């Protein structure tokens, strides 16, 4: 090559490099929110988490929680800094073994790695902290509940910021290792597989739990205190861990008569929803006056004993375990999509009612429809977009279940259950929107279903008739045997969540 050719080539290369430099996207801070219209500050942008390793010590006497959370993540863009959602006082942060600068304000932990993190970079983020979780509140609310002998971290849609830093939104799921050291004589319950305990020389014990499947941050829970823990195996060999507070009093037997049937309920729901998506099963009943609701913590739903005040209640077990498919495995893309959680979990109760012979789904649908007069505020809440203030309103549960039954009536049983199983399989361990569900239902059924979903999810006012039934029935319509339990369950569920 001649000198002139070399010079020409060099000029061209230099020009190309200048052009690329001029068009390259500049690194920016990760967004302080993931983009959920209901909760603009929930979650964060710029990275995706794959695993949380939460290793903490808890002192019940002063409600002091301290230790480290190690986060494994990957950047999704070039970032100069990023946020974590966290309320507790942080003492240090390392990013890829280098000390990072940080600041905290209004639940946002802003991390400055002191340099640009390139897109696709692996991150190891180690956050060290110590604080009193019960001293923190947001809008007058705290998700960390201090008890007589321990603590309880359970809530929806927010609980993680009170005990571990996270990308706090269902769009960013991860696996978990949770290890807690507590004084001897106390137990620690969390999600997934129980990995055992280790006695320490200072009168403390480590408790270890592992979640092997992707899990949303609000579904990660911890319960610390004294519990009667029962371990067994489901028919297929899957481990089952159930636990009961010691002070359930007259509700103790009814609680155990309900929760100990969890594997039976799961086995039944598999017939409708497809294979159970997780590595473990179980339930926890906490002490009176602590919770006020039940929550579908992944693999280990947690219940207030009030659900069992009038005897055994397997309907709430069906509801919370229905969530293991609808809400836990397939999570909301935005919190506006909450019908995908609550409508189907409520319909799991209708299915269980049919199974145990206490009322068909059609009878329960008709009775639900008749229960609310046309001028009731119930019919003014839209399950397909209820708004933040009505996210857990009774209509999301009850009218949500009617929408599911309307689909069943419209497409027939065979197609209906095919839709449910295809949905839980294709969206497994991910997140989804209501519009995606409608598209799948139309694709499987070959029917145009816009009118159906518009009527039941997105139109205010009472529809002309119950799905598959009639307009307002006469007073002679009998209440299904299951209905009182279902109503008691829903009143507790929808009145107390944050």
Automatic annotation (TrEMBL):
**A molecular-function term among this protein's GO annotations:** metallopeptidase activity
- What cofactor does its activity depend on? Zn(2+)
Q: Keywords assigned by UniProt? A: Aminopeptidase, Hydrolase, Metal-binding, Metalloprotease, Protease, Signal, Zinc
- Where does the Peptidase M1 membrane alanine aminopeptidase domain start and stop, copy by copy? 259-456
What SUPFAM superfamilies would the database entry show? Leukotriene A4 hydrolase N-terminal domain, Metalloproteases ('zincins'), catalytic domain
GO biological process terms held by the UniProt record: proteolysis
Domain Aminopeptidase N-like N-terminal positions = 50-219
Q: What protein name applies here? A: Aminopeptidase N
């Amino acid at each position: 090559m001649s000198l002139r050719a070399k010079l020409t080539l060099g000029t061209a290369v230099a020009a190309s490099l200048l052009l690329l430099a001029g068009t390259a996207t500049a690194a920016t801070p990760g967004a302080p929110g993931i983009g959920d219209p209901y909760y603009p500050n929930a979650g964060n942008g710029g990275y995706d988490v794959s695993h949380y390793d939460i290793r903490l010590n808890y002192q019940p006497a002063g409600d002091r929680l301290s230790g480290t959370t190690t986060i494994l993540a990957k950047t999704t863009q070039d970032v100069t800094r990023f946020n974590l959602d966290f309320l507790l006082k942080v003492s240090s942060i390392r990013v890829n073994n280098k000390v990072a600068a940080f600041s905290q304000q209004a639940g946002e932990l802003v991390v400055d790695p002191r340099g640009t993190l390139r897109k696709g970079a692996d991150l190891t983020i180690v956050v060290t902290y110590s604080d009193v979780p019960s001293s923190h509140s947001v809008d007058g609310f705290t998700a960390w509940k201090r008890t007589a002998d321990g603590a309880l971290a359970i809530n929806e849609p927010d609980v993680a910021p009170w005990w571990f830093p996270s990308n706090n939104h269902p769009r960013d799921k991860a696996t978990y290792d949770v290890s807690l050291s507590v004084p001897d004589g106390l137990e620690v319950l969390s999600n997934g597989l129980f990995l055992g305990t280790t006695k320490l020389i200072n009168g403390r014990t480590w408790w270890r739990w592992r979640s092997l499947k992707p899990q949303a941050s609000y579904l990660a829970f911890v319960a610390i205190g004294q519990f009667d823990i029962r371990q067994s195996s489901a028919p297929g060999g899957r481990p089952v861990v159930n636990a009961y507070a010691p002070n359930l009093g007259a509700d103790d037997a009814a609680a155990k008569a309900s929760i100990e049937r969890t594997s039976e309920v799961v086995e039944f729901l598999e017939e409708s929803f497809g294979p159970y998506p997780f590595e473990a099963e179980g339930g926890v009943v906490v002490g009176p006056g602590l919770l006020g609701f039940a929550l579908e913590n992944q693999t280990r739903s947690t219940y207030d004993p009030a659900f069992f005040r009038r005897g055994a209640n397997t309907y709430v077990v069906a509801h919370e375990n229905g969530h293991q498919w609808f809400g836990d495995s397939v999570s909301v893309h935005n919190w506006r999509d909450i019908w995908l959680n609550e409508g189907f979990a409520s319909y799991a109760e209708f299915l269980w009612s049919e199974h145990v012979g206490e009322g068909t789904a059609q009878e329960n649908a008709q009775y639900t429809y008749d229960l609310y007069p046309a001028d009731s505020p119930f019919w003014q809440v839209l399950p397909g977009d209820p708004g933040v203030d009505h996210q857990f309103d009774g209509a999301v549960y009850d009218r949500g279940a009617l929408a599911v039954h309307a689909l069943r009536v419209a497409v027939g049983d065979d197609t209906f259950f095919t839709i449910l199983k295809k949905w839980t399989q294709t969206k497994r361990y991910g997140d989804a929107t209501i519009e995606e569900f409608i598209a799948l239902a139309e694709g499987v059924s070959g029917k145009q279903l816009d009118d159906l979903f518009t009527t039941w999810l997105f139109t205010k006012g009472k529809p002309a008739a119950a799905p598959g039934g009639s307009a307002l029935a006469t007073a002679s319509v009998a209440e299904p045997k299951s209905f009182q339990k279902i109503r008691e369950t829903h009143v507790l569920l929808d009145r107390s969540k944050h």
